[in-house]
Amino acid sequence: MHSKKIKVQIMKPGLLEDDCLVVGELLIKQLKIPTNQPLQLSFGSFRHNVKVIPLSRLDGIRISQGLAKSMALPARSTLRIFYRPQSSTIQLGPIVGVLISQDYPDVTERPFGPITQFCRELANACQQQGVFVYFFTPSHIGSSSSKVTGWLYADGWKKTELPAANVFYNRLTSRKLENKPSVQHFMKEVKSLYGSHYFNEKFLDKTEVFDALGKAPSVAGYMPESHLFRNYAMLKSMCSRHPIVFLKPIKGSLGKGIIRISRLDGGGYQTLTAQVGGTQKHNYASLSKLFTTLSGKMKSTRYQIQQGLHLILMDRRPVDFRALVQKNRFGKWSVTSVVARIANDQHFVSNLARGGSLCTLKNAISRSTLPPAAKKRLNVRLKKAALDIALGIDQQIPAHFGELGIDLAVDQHGRIWLLEVNSKPSKNDNTPLGGSKIRPSVKQVIEYSRFLSGF
Questions:
Q1: Is 125 helix (H, G, I), strand (E, B) or coil?
Q2: Which UniProt keywords apply (predicted)?
């Protein structure tokens, strides 16, 4: 179905009835809209019966001020339109609702804190493509699923009541907020009542990812040995097979709380723990003494135990790779970007939050410690690995994802390994911008939303 991008003119009060829609004659012809029968106007969850009035030399549509107010349309809106003959419906939209964790209504310049720049960028990109976007938090969800209070960008940020969207994009950064009964109920209702789509609908934890992908033969070659950490026997067994193992909080992010365990000459063991101010080091005479210390942490945190890898180095520091994979306008996974992340000299993890830095893929490969033969086609192999893993997630985990951050490592023999999959890749204001004001990753979110909504 082909939608058309149009301008919506809002008439002055008294010039047009609320049940009339003035449509340009060329548009009527292109979309095959009947003019001799009552039709339904649809905009997200909003429905209204209208009659169409053709007008020559009009490029777009005209609506009354009352109708625009009911739809929450600001002046000079650009939308997309198509006609569904089966239901005699003129469909305007698409509406994309972005669910975020928190807003700051009193901070007019940055109402969404560290993701304000991303929200503005998405709003600008949507306007260019004729997509209507708003932002809302769990506290904006009311008793009715047909409406939600949210923020629009129209000559500044404005808060208003809006129809339920065609597509919801989950950018919540808290599992607690995501699991709130009001959020879960709202999403279930809008999917059921209005056919809304909801993507990136849940957080992934490390155990879920590795257990699920362990069932996918296509990604077996990327998988390090990895288990939910349960007891001393498991620690002993892993340390007997691997000189280095990692313990990672299964619900952790940003490299926080990761513990690296290595054998020392003479039989002892050493732990390095990633903390905010740097790395904390402890030596233990035996593995059992190390486990006794870990037992205290295990009471409050569940860990995934994972085989350690000898990563390639750049400037004598470990480097890994973050691939952003997103679904495109055909609903298929594609790689939007791959960047290299270099660990800070005070840390063994490469996360930006732990002082890591970014580098282009090409630069990292050329300056890495890899043998020249292993450098060839590594960029192609990394992208293939990211796509294979994204497909594996879709096949093995029953949830809807449209965007994933996939962390990959390359060992000193050139083999690619999976480190982690993140269903909420960072959109903070410190995420580097590309050469243009609107990043390809933002455009891809819009393309996929249009695919889902049929616009």
A1: helix
A2: ATP-binding, Nucleotide-binding
Are 156 and 123 within 8 A, CB to CB?
A: no
Q: How confident is the model at residue 355 (pLDDT cuts 50, 70, 90)?
A: low
Q: How many angstroms separate the CA atoms of 75 and 68, rounded?
A: 9
Closest CA to 94 of 384, 448, 346, 349: 448
Question: Could you read off the pLDDT of 93-147 as tens digits, one per residue?
Answer: 999 999 999 999 999 889 999 999 999 999 999 999 999 999 999 999 999 999 9
Tokens representing 451? Answer: 């695919």
Other CB atoms within 10 A of residue 399 CB = 15
CA gap 41, 39 in Å, rounded: 7
Can you give the pTM of this predicted structure? 0.91
| Selection from 449, 386, 455 nearest residue 421 by Cα | 386
Cα separation, 275 vs 283, whole angstroms: 17
Cβ contacts of 388 within 8 Å, gap of 6 or more:
218, 219, 222
Nearest Cα to 4, choosing from 122, 109, 92, 88? 92
Say if residues 61 and 22 touch (Cβ distance below 8 Å).
Answer: yes
